[in-house]
Amino acid sequence: MDFKPFNAYIVDACRTAGGKKNGKLSGYHPCELGAAVCDALVERQKINGAEVEDVVFGCVGQVGAQASNVARNVVLSCRLLPESVPGTSVDRQCGSSQQAVHAAAQAVMSGVHDCCIAGGVEVMSTVPIGANIIDGMKAGHGFPMTEAMTEKYKDKMKAFEQFAISTSAFSQFGGAELLAKKYNLSREDVDRFAAISQQRAVESTKAGKFKDEIVPLPVKRKEGASEDIHSEDEGIRANVTVESLGKLKAMFPNGVLTPASSSQICDGASAVLICNERGLQKLGLKPMARIHSLALAATDPVVMLEGPIPATRTALEKVKMKIEDIDLYEVNEAFASVPLAWMKALGADFEKLNVNGGAMALGHPLGGTGTKLLATLVHELKRQKKRYGVLAICEGGGTSNATIVEMMPSAKL
Question: Is 116 labeled as catalytic in the residue annotation?
Answer without folding.
Answer: no
